[in-house]
Specification:
This is non-specific serine/threonine protein kinase. InterPro entries: Prot_kinase_dom (IPR000719), Ser/Thr_kinase_AS (IPR008271). It catalyses: L-seryl-[protein] + ATP = O-phospho-L-seryl-[protein] + ADP + H(+); L-threonyl-[protein] + ATP = O-phospho-L-threonyl-[protein] + ADP + H(+). Keywords: ATP-binding, Kinase, Nucleotide-binding, Serine/threonine-protein kinase, Transferase. It is a single chain. This protein is of the alpha+beta class. It has two domains: 200 residues, 2-Layer Sandwich (Phosphorylase Kinase, domain 1), CATH 3.30.200; 251 residues, Transferase(Phosphotransferase), domain 1 (Orthogonal Bundle), CATH 1.10.510. It is 29% helix and 15% strand. The strands form six sheets. A five-stranded antiparallel sheet has the order 3-4-5-7-6, with helices on both faces. A two-stranded antiparallel ribbon has the order 1-2. A hairpin with a 5-residue loop joins strand 9 and strand 10. Helix 9 packs antiparallel against helix 12 and helix 12 packs antiparallel against helix 14. The longest helix is centred in the middle third of the chain and has 20 residues. It is globular, with a radius of gyration of 24 Å. The two termini are 44 Å apart.
Length: 484
Amino acid sequence: MVAAVRLTALGKPPKGSAAAAEEEVAERYSDVDTTAPNSSLSSAASSTGSLARCSSLSRLSFDCSPSAAVSCSAARHSVAGVVRPHRSGDVAWAAIRAASASAEPLGPKDFKLVRRIGGGDIGTVYLCRLRSSVTTTAAAAAAENPCLYAMKVVDRRAVAKKHKVERAAAEKRILRLLDHPFLPTLFADFDATPNFSCVVMEFCPGGDLHSLRHRMPSRRFPLPSAQFYAAEVLLALEYLHMMGIVYRDLKPENVLIRSDGHIMLTDFDLSLESTTSPALEDGEAETAGESDEPDMASVSCFPDNFLRFKRRRRRGAVAAAPPPPRFVAEPVSARSCSFVGTHEYVAPEVASGGAHGAAVDWWAYGVFLYELLYGRTPFAGATNEATLRNIVRRPLAFPSGSGSCGPADAAARDLIARLLTKDPAARLGSRRGAADVKTHPFFKNLNLALLRSSRPPVVPAAALHRSQSCKPPPKPAVTRFDLF
């Protein structure tokens, strides 16, 4: 039997039935604030109109309906059979594989919506879990299927009214490609009736970096914590650029915290799909500002002192071996004239209305790092127009008395200054992408190759996503725009 999506406005189920109980749960959480910590969309991305159009989705109900079998079966797909190598050991994958053991792919009937956890420009995000047998109680079902997932539901009718059908399709195409420890895992992908498209992804109970920053003293991260999160985001951007994807929406609200404390970059509806040609370049070619020492320590699995010891033993015997070649995969040919992004994070070439490429991600990365360290963005103005003028015209300035002035702080400021170069051709990362950024002294003491195995600065509590007391105040005057 194939499942169908049924809106409760079309008719009430009999009182006391399983459908009525499920509908009651969905209605109970219909007014949950869309700025919940785990929203996979920016809390500021939704306008009043878009939320009004999506409000009926908050009472979404998945039920089995024989009459809908014909309309739904032809439009359904699933990627549950494709196990991503980086996440293949997760218990969440084991539950998905067990649920999809039958020949029929996963669909709406296999998931139970728990509550609404977010809403944005092109969809609504629900907390969900796999269904158990119909006869089990809610407590037994939770014990049988403890894994929680995030389901993003897109109403094609609402998206079509905003002329963003291709944006939603592009995001789904990108999610199907990703296989990286710091990017979303797509567990299932299916359509529910002709009007709704659903993707099931990993649920991140730790909220986002914007929420976490507001819980820090002085609302900013200590330098080691900022260094850790910036390094994980850097590796995620490197992978995206290697796949020919220009992200175009980097900000703390789009960096979620998994249950193990590591990050997950999310929200790809503004991303630009392009092509890239990975290559190995001579490691001796140095960019401006790199140290004279070989950059092996920044990409090697061995600690610095080991490499120094090996070099001391060989000194005077043989000449030092040249540094290994660098892996470079940057979509340097990507070009777009779309005026998209979030005002405080857009690059000068976007703010001035010109064409842009992958260098916009490295500008946004500099703004992102600045905000983690200093608690605000560097060019914010009283209005969105003033912010755009500041981005184009105002020179970069660092707050006075913002902390220590040691070597680590100086390296952070140098990295930010190189990333926030207004000329995209001279911007750090514009030529060789992450290969240039990773060799900066700011990341000298981090082993990027083993970052996934390092302990994060904050490991969220299991019940953090249910707490409303940790919700930060809304970020003022940050809106996402989408003009052509």
